[in-house]
Amino acid sequence: MDPQCIGALLLLAIGLNQASASANQLNYFLKVTTDGPITSGAQATISARLMVRNGSQMHPAHPNAFHFHWKLQHTLSIKWRSEDSSSISVLAPLANIYDLQVWVTHADCWICLPVAIGFATLHVTDSVVGHVSLMQSNSSIDPEAGSYQLATNTSTKISFILYDPSNYFSTASYLYIWRFGDGSKMVTNESYVSYIFHTRGVYHLRVEVLAHLNAFQRKNGVYTATLNLLDPVRAIEITSNQDNRV
């Protein structure tokens, strides 16, 4: 069926549903999730979960009782779908923020009014996707207010954690360029380095990731973090000038 016809029928169904305020529409809830953001050229998995409301209780709808219908932007193409189409895998060739729409009908009546309608967005970028992680003394460090609290004169493991849910980069080779904010620079093929900051202060860490997919295709990404270096407390001695005796 022509996509414009599908869109027109969907809008008509939405209008009829809103006008009738049917009990079915009030009893169902649709949650749509994606595994984005992803890099362009990779595949994303999009899933819709239909829940049934029974009073104050929510429970999953029977998987074989409903069918899921998707409306995607033209540059997205479906590469795989589950039996009831509640989950699909799409190829995203271009960077963009894609709007997704899904509606659910009873499995034995695809042209009936939808019992639920859901929306989501898929973020696709040309960059390598991931994040920076830091560790000191065998413990991970979480950022506070956008910066990391670290101790000086202590070995710090700095890692880049790749996010690649479809294994798009499984055969890629990598180059990492690390700049630590104190004028020092390192270039590695490994996704982690160990570094010691000797002086307290604020440092702006920068890592550039170069992923070579083949001889003609390369992707890159730049990630930064603010590091607040503090001198560690070596020891605390508490004394009292009172001698309590019984």
TrEMBL record:
GO terms for cellular component: plasma membrane. Residues 176-209 form the PKD domain. The keyword Methyltransferase does not apply. This is Transmembrane protein 130-like protein. Residues 1-21 form the signal peptide. Keywords: Glycoprotein, Membrane, Signal, Transmembrane. It comes from the Eukaryota. InterPro entries: PKAT (IPR045219), PKD_dom (IPR000601), PKD_dom_sf (IPR035986). Pfam families: PKD (PF00801).
